[in-house]
């Protein structure tokens, strides 16, 4: 279902966020309706592209939603509850009050361990969803008791089959017993489902005391581009779904802990990193900052994956190394090219071209796999600037105009999103006048799972992400400036899987 929230007023965003299955009864709805009636559009620097947004903004709106949530005591009808043990002595306290506003369906569970060490055994995660995203040997925390809510928001698409629900816009919300007052919000990398960040982000955030909220982005899998009516609809929905889960999570947290979160951070990998950027550019008032791990770059004119993947698909089969370098792929990354050609470049090009320019190949869906250059309607010959799918890309494009502190990390050997055509470009877009740090990780690549195969050539990004997150905490909460943006050298020794210094 298409919900392009950058082009509609806040009142309509909120009706999308809290549309059906809403918890809280009359008090909740009355407070929300009253706020919408009193909101008047005005011009504000926070508004994307100078568009009008309500004067109160989503920040004030979230406060209204949170206050109304505190007034409502009973869980919504149809909300399921599963308890691993009785909630006593603070464990899973206020479980009966935990209801996610706007959710069409939700199931609550009181768990002894919200991390993957516990949820993999209890069935509250899917290890296949986060496979390959972290390096072998990574040490993760465990033993974080609390509440988990699985559910979905209203949606018409059905690509997510998790739990047998056959329903998109699935979410997970985790509420630790020992809460530090913060919230981490995420969308998923690639086209994976809602558990994809469980090992890399959720475990670590929960152990620090954060509540954690994540969305499947509203469509999943290789057929994600079928969602929506217009080119770009499926990706545009991703952004709305992150906004949706952030607002709903804040209200749910207020009901569980008796107060809203004091700080909210966005975090994500790859497509999830793109979502962090978009949120901080367009919905900055919902967050205090974010960490972007190798985010995908979408911009109308200039570099994006539809400009550098077709040259790679033409050059690699011919062994044209210079053409690969010219396309942006780093010298020294050659050993990674066979894997990425087989598993990433072709599929990624075809799926995202189908999403943004479906007319290129007529009635064919997502092109012809591994077609040779010269074949009619072959994605290897796709010419972005000749095709000009600018309207679709404009709806999802980034500007660099972030409104809250952002830290980006990107590997110099990223062979799906080459750093020279992605991270470096976005850093230039943000510029020097906004709160931004950019750490180029020497020998890092797109997926840390490859580190086990090439331990002498690669460096994992996971520990650098965690160091970046802690730097963001210091920046936001203690006004401690992070180290200057830099290219981080590959250490000669030490525990590369678990340690990373951003600088001094």
Explain what this protein looks like in three dimensions:
β11, α14 (423-430) and β12 form a beta-alpha-beta unit. The chain is built from 15 helices and 13 strands. The chain has helices spanning 10-17, 25-38, 57-71, 116-122, 127-130, 198-207, 233-257, 271-282, 305-318, 321-326, 337-356, 384-387, 390-394, 423-430, 462-477; strands at residues 41-42, 53-54, 80-83, 105-111, 146-152, 170-176, 182-187, 211-215, 263-269, 289-293, 406-411, 436-441, 486-488. With 504 residues, the chain is of the alpha/beta class. α3 (57-71) packs across α7 and α9 crosses α11 (337-356). Helix content is 33%, strand content 13%. Residues 2-17, 19-60, 70-79 and 81-89 have low confidence and may be disordered.
Strand order of the largest sheet: 3-4-5-6-8-7-9-10-11-12-13
Quote the beta fraction: 5-15%
- The arrangement of helices and strands along the chain is HHEEHEEHHEEEHEHEHEHHHHHEHEHE
The dominant shape is globular
Mean pLDDT over all positions? 87
Helix content: 25-40%
Q: What's the quaternary structure here? A: single chain
Largest beta-sheet characterization: 11 strands, mixed
Low-confidence stretches: 2-17, 19-60, 70-79, 81-89
Structural class based on helices, strands and sheet pairing: alpha/beta
Question: How many beta strands in the DSSP annotation?
Answer: 13
Q: From the alpha carbons, calculate the radius of gyration and give it in angstroms.
A: 22 Å
Counting DSSP H or I runs of 4 or more residues, the number of helices is: 15
Distance between the termini: 47 Å
């Amino acid at each position: 279902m298409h919900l392009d929230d950058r082009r509609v007023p806040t009142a309509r965003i909120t009706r999308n966020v809290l549309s059906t299955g809403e918890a809280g009864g009359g008090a909740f709805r009355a407070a929300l309706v009253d706020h919408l009636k009193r909101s008047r559009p005005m011009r504000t620097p926070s508004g994307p592209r100078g568009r009008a947004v309500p004067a109160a903004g989503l920040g004030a709106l979230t406060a209204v939603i949170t206050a109304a949530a505190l007034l409502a005591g009973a869980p919504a009808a149809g909300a399921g509850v599963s308890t691993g043990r009785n909630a006593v002595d603070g464990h899973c306290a206020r479980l009966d009050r935990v209801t996610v506003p706007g959710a069409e369906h939700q199931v609550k569970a009181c768990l002894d361990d919200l991390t993957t060490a516990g949820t993999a055994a209890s069935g509250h995660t899917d290890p296949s969803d986060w496979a390959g995203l972290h390096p072998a040997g990574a040490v993760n925390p465990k033993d974080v008791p609390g509440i988990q809510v699985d559910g979905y928001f209203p949606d018409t698409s059905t690509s997510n089959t998790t739990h047998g629900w056959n329903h998109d816009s699935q979410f997970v919300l985790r509420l630790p017993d020992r809460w530090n007052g913060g919230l981490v919000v995420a969308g998923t990398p690639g086209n994976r489902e809602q558990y994809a960040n469980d090992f890399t982000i959720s475990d670590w955030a929960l152990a620090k005391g954060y509540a954690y909220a994540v969305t499947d982005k509203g469509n999943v899998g290789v057929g994600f581009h079928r969602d929506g009516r217009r080119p770009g609809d499926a990706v545009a929905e991703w952004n709305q779904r992150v906004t949706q889960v952030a607002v709903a999570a804040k209200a749910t947290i207020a009901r569980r802990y008796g107060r809203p979160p004091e700080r909210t951070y966005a975090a994500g990998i790859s497509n999830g990193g793109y979502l962090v950027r978009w949120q901080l550019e367009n919905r900055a008032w919902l967050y205090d900052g974010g960490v972007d791990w190798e985010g995908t770059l979408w911009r109308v004119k200039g570099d994006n994956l539809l400009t550098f993947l077709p040259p790679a698909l033409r050059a690699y089969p011919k062994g044209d190394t210079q053409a690969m370098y010219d396309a942006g792929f780093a010298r020294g990354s050659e050993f990674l090219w066979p894997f990425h050609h087989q598993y990433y470049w072709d599929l990624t090009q075809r799926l995202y071209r189908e999403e943004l320019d479906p007319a290129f190949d007529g009635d064919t869906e997502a092109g012809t796999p591994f077609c040779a250059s010269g074949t009619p309607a072959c994605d290897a010959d796709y010419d972005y600037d000749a095709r000009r799918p600018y309207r679709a890309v404009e709806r999802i494009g980034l500007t660099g105009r972030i409104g809250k502190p952002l830290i980006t990390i990107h590997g110099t050997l990223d062979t799906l999103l080459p750093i020279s055509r992605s991270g470096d470009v976005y850093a230039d877009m943000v510029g020097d006048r906004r709160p931004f740090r950019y750490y180029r990780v020497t020998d890092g690549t797109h997926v840390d799972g490859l580190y086990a195969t090439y331990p002498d050539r690669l460096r994992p990004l996971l520990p650098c992400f965690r160091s970046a997150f802690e730097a963001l905490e210091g920046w936001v909460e203690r006004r401690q400036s992070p180290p200057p943006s830099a290219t981080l050298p590959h250490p000669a020794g030490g525990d590369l899987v678990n340690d990373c210094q951003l600088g001094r």
